[in-house]
Amino acid sequence: MRNDLNPTRVLNAVRNLGILAHVDAGKTTVTERILYLTGTTHKRGEVHDGTTITDFDPQERDRGITIFAAAVSCDWDGHRINLIDTPGHVDFADEVERSLRVLDGAIAVFDAVAGVEPQSESVWRQADRHGVPRIAFVNKLDRAGADLDAAVESIRQRLHPAPLVVQLPIGTEDGFTGVVDLLRMRALVWADGSDVVEEQPVPDDLRDEAHRRRRRLEETVAELHPVALDEFCAEHTLSADTLASALRDLTRTGDGVVVLCGSAYRNRGIEPLLDAVVAYLPSPVDVPAVRGTHAGVEQERDADPQAPFAALAFKVNATATGRLTYVRVYSGTIRKGDVVMDAGTRRGERIGRILRVQADRHAELDRAVAGDIVALVGLKTARAGTTLCAPTAPLLLEPPSVAEPVVSVAVEARRSTDTERLASALVRLVEEDPSLVVRTDPETGQTVLSGMGELHLEVAVEKVRQTHGLEVGVGRPRVAYRETMVRGVSGLVYRHVKQDGGAGQFAHVVLDVAPLAADVDGVGGAATGFAFRSTVVGGRVPQEFVRAVEAGCRDALAEGPLGGHPVTGVSVTLTDGATHSKDSSEMAFRAAGRFGLREAMRVGAMAVLEPVAEVTVSVPADAVGGVIGDLAARRGRVSESVARAGAVVVTATVPLAELFGYATRLRSRTQGRGTFTARPAGYVPAPGAVATR
């Protein structure tokens, strides 16, 4: 295909698509059958046997789910298909997001029994945001309870496109043997034990039903497509060619979704699915030119091998043989040894090798052109979202969005000698997966790993263990508590006197210590911060010593009397004092301020404060009661509940310590349809944490 001298014809024969679905709908099995039928593999891989090509990571095979997006390439009917098998679990939605950013089309796979499931809905909305055209494949028609019409209705009700069903199943459940192609009015049958499809006349018992469904398809298409409407009004029917052309247009505009059906596990329905990919999904020249900016000016680059080079990195993978950077080439041509520019850092990078990817296997290429999805070897600093471009024609493309992490765990090396190795492993982990965030808590000193869900973090930690051979401990992050004053002390006298030969130390201070007023640097429930002032008159305490007293008071705030937590929400007033002509100094008054405030905190009443977060939860209306009850069980205080566009948005203030595990709990209560965001909202007194003296 690369020998074709016409670049447009080459690009017209490329399809860049992803497989999207809820977990366990059969995405990976569909991918495996596509690879088998296109001759890319010679043995059918099975998820339950751990023999699939795209689920090659040990954790994927152990868990039986797709975790990492895997790219493969194959050929069908003179077309090059670059395929990305994406994860179906909600914790790995960021992998789907990065993949959709570089794809031109997608196959959405649905379970014929379950129909549209929660994560099916989520990935469909992601594809909507990126404007990615889709066709639908209703899988597992051989299962007990499979119902194509019910699955199609769930697509209509929950996803809202116009489903354009182009096939009629032959047989049900265990008796499912093939489909009727409603465009060509023919039967496609797969005999037991055979991988070859046989074309036959439509069975007599299905002929009337096939004609009814064909008529319904024509009417639906005519309502949506003006050219088809003209022919339908003139001829009272649509030809197969007109119907196919209209289906292609409706798919690419998103006004309709072509629906096919089959059973990937039994290898039934995959050939028509591949034909539909070629017929309906767009090539790189069918999608709008990619847009980017340079020097603040927006530019476009057409999918032209002769144009200046521009590509977007969407995945980085560190392997035993080197660092692979997966890119989508939008324009131009690159060859092995070329120097490209990182548009963000404006640094040059040399292309060591160019690889055609087959999951964990690779074939070396001499060049890559517009429309290709390939892996590059030799890039040192490129990350997911990096734009690579020709040094003479800079262009910065919009990177994939990265979701904010919602769950955190504390990680530490079991052996102190492995601490540096763990830090290096975590840095590499974040390079490969931008949805992971690593930070060191400045107060607790813990290394905190944050991600999209508990399974996401579990997989990340296990990868560190397996890849780097490290023993890693995982636990809850410690919550950063505070202490505050509940009842203050007036007129506390503290004398700091020290005489051990030579110049001594003398400082006399009188302090009023009180809770800080809520309107002074207050955030959320309790006032936070520290206020200091002096009302000393007559120069009894010189100004430089007043500043030393304030510094000493700030020193005392580092540890409170209840649990050694930092102290906040305190106001100190220096009302009087005295000095010695020889022994008074800034150091002495600083010590007096420190020990005087500590004494005041011991004499007064203190309380422990816990951090709280403002949590905004978006849930389906039928799950509101359970969600509010769960928030109450977590000591949350609901402040607002508003209905918006078919969902209910609940706002509550929840202690941060109670949010551990909430993401998983919310998904369980809402069948994966609930989402939440959290932001710090200050501190409130912890239950039963007031100490009075």
From TrEMBL:
GO terms for molecular function: translation elongation factor activity. SMART domains: EFG_C, EFG_IV. Residues 12-285 form the Tr-type G domain. It comes from the Bacteria. Keywords: Cytoplasm, Elongation factor, GTP-binding, Nucleotide-binding, Protein biosynthesis. Pfam families: EFG_C (PF00679), EFG_III (PF14492), EFG_IV (PF03764), GTP_EFTU (PF00009), GTP_EFTU_D2 (PF03144). GTP binds at residues 21-28, 85-89, 139-142. It is found in: Cytoplasm. Catalyzes the GTP-dependent ribosomal translocation step during translation elongation. During this step, the ribosome changes from the pre-translocational (PRE) to the post-translocational (POST) state as the newly formed A-site-bound peptidyl-tRNA and P-site-bound deacylated tRNA move to the P and E sites, respectively. Catalyzes the coordinated movement of the two tRNA molecules, the mRNA and conformational changes in the ribosome. Belongs to the TRAFAC class translation factor GTPase superfamily. Classic translation factor GTPase family. EF-G/EF-2 subfamily. This is Elongation factor G. It comes from Streptomyces graminofaciens.
